[in-house]
Design a protein that fits this description.
Layout (H helix, E strand, L loop, with lengths): L4 E4 L2 E4 H17 L11 H22 L1
Helix pairs in contact: 1-2
């Protein structure tokens, strides 16, 4: 069974908002290359997906920690 709360050195961090932040950030990041005409499965889309996901995780951590 996976716990909903994880203990870190700073206190408790909820996993749900962190996962949601990573998903939403990655989703938004993967659509950014489409603004200049790159395909949805291009290398730029994958790179922006990773950057957006990490940014979304960071935002969720800062908001909910």
């Amino acid at each position: 069974m996976v716990s909903v709360v994880e203990l870190t050195e700073d206190g408790l961090v909820r996993k749900g908002p962190t996962y949601t932040g990573g998903f939403v950030g990655g989703l938004i990041g993967s659509f950014i290359p489409g603004l200049w005409g790159a395909g949805q499965l291009s290398i730029a889309s994958v790179v922006f997906f990773m950057i957006g996901g990490l940014f979304g995780i960071w935002i969720a951590y800062r908001l909910f920690a």
